[in-house]
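About this split. The held-out portion is used to measure sequence recovery: a designer receives only the structure tokens and must propose an amino acid at every position. Recovery is the fraction of positions where the proposal matches the reference. Here is one held-out target exactly as it appears in the evaluation file.
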């Protein structure tokens, strides 16, 4: 399991380094605008420059994963990004959800390896 989690951490780092960089540098040709709510939603995010801070969070998380430092912080930062990716694809573009599901599976593997860092979040009461 430790090897799988290490591979998952590196894959997450590479995936989010690549896509976080692409959001800033635009080296991949963007696909045609999606129809319906998905296209409107993405256009609003682009017009509001929302992708810049999200890309920065992705790049910071990727750097933490690749450096194997503060991995729990990287997981914490990347969690909401993955939730938004999954919600976007579930609600507006279900045909292209596979990469989001794959990244979530990788995130869960890394989370499982570092679950001790999150143990306090799952306690019902604070013990003093």
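Reference sequence for scoring:
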């Amino acid at each position: 399991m430790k090897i799988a989690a290490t591979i998952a951490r590196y894959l997450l780092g590479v995936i989010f380094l690549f896509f976080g960089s692409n959001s800033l540098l635009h080296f991949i040709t963007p696909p045609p605008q999606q129809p319906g709510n998905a296209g409107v939603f993405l256009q609003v995010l682009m017009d509001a420059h929302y992708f810049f801070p999200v890309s920065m969070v992705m790049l910071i998380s990727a750097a933490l994963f690749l450096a194997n430092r503060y991995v729990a912080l990287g997981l914490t930062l990347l969690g909401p990004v993955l939730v938004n990716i999954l919600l976007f694809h579930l609600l507006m573009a279900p045909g292209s959800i596979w990469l989001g599901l794959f990244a979530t599976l990788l995130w869960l593997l890394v989370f499982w390896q570092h679950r001790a860092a999150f143990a306090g979040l799952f306690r019902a009461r604070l013990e003093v």
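Annotator remark: The chain has a mean pLDDT of 94.
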